[in-house]
Design a protein that fits this description.
CATH class: Alpha Beta
Order of helices and strands: EHEHEHEHHEHHHEHHEHEH
CATH superfamily: Aldolase class I
Strand order of the largest sheet: 1-2-3-4-5-6-7-8
CATH architecture: Alpha-Beta Barrel
Mean pLDDT: 97
CATH topology: TIM Barrel
Structural class: alpha/beta
Bound molecules: 2-phosphoglycolic acid
């Protein structure tokens, strides 16, 4: 099954001024312009999305947002409508990142609403799932993943799920420098495909891209991406340095050669 790997650079709450954004993107663009076998996404803060769009237009890098609200308009002070995101050229949106879940108390039910809205207006969702360290240590990883898949993807059709990217991000590996071993990550990616096979069918499960996320660095990217069921990654810290991001992108590109 040939799935195109996807690398997302999640800048989180960094590089949110025009100067920083421009500096990063203008050095990144020429270094990855020959990459056609990997989908490339940069998700900068909201403040520079439109600015980033103007810089990225016509390149092979797509624009992502880090969050959105599930309503399209109205009295929701401080929230961002997915329609606005679409309107300024955003193609992907990260939903249910563990920082949204843990710090901002987003529930699976809320993420499910956001996911349905995103799909409705053709924003491509990247949905994050993953377990906490205590859950892993108690042997509950698969239960957590199954619960998150059931709740977050509730009522989705096969067509919907085929437009969705899943990011398996063990929370204990995010920003900690601790990476899941390629074997640990692959085990859960296979498990996710089994769950999707039960919910939909094998062909559908085999078509869905599942990224890994959590302390991906140039020195571990190749081993992770060479696993059959790992289709690229969602990169936080290492996406803030052009050279490390390019090395990670190159590792994903090599994994399909
Ligand atoms: P990290 O973040 O690469 O800094 O661990 C990954 C993520 O939060 O998606």
């Amino acid at each position: 099954m040939l799935r195109k790997p996807i690398i997302g650079g999640n800048w989180k709450m960094n590089r949110g001024t025009p100067e920083k954004c421009k500096e990063m993107l203008e050095s990144l663009i020429p270094l990855v312009e020959g990459i056609n076998d990997v989908d490339l996404i940069i998700a900068p803060p909201f403040t520079v999305l439109i600015y980033a769009y103007k810089i990225l237009k016509g390149t092979n890098i797509m624009l992502g947002a880090q969050n959105m609200y599930f309503e399209e308009k109205g009295a929701y002070t401080g929230e961002i409508s997915p329609i606005f995101l679409k309107g300024i050229g955003v193609e992907y949106v990260i939903l249910g990142h563990s920082e949204r879940r843990d710090i901002f108390k987003e529930t699976d039910a809320l993420i499910n609403k956001k996911l349905k809205t995103a799909l409705n207006i053709n924003l491509k969702p990247i949905v994050c799932i993953g377990e906490h360290l205590e859950e892993r240590e108690l042997g509950k990883t698969k239960d957590i993943i199954e619960f998150q898949i059931n709740e977050t993807f509730k009522d989705l059709t096969k067509e919907d799920i085929l437009k969705t990217v899943i990011a398996y991000e063990p929370i204990w590996a995010i920003g900690t420098g601790k990476t899941a071993t390629p074997e640990q990550a692959e085990e859960i990616h296979i498990f996710i495909r089994e769950l999707l096979t039960e919910k939909f069918d094998k062909g559908t499960a085999d078509s869905i891209r599942i990224q890994y996320g959590g302390s991906i660095k140039p020195n571990n990217a190749e081993d992770l991406f060479n696993k059959e069921n790992i289709d690229g990654g969602l990169v936080g810290g290492a996406s803030l340095q052009v050279d490390s991001l390019v090395q990670i992108i190159t590792a994903a590109d090599n994994s399909v050669k």
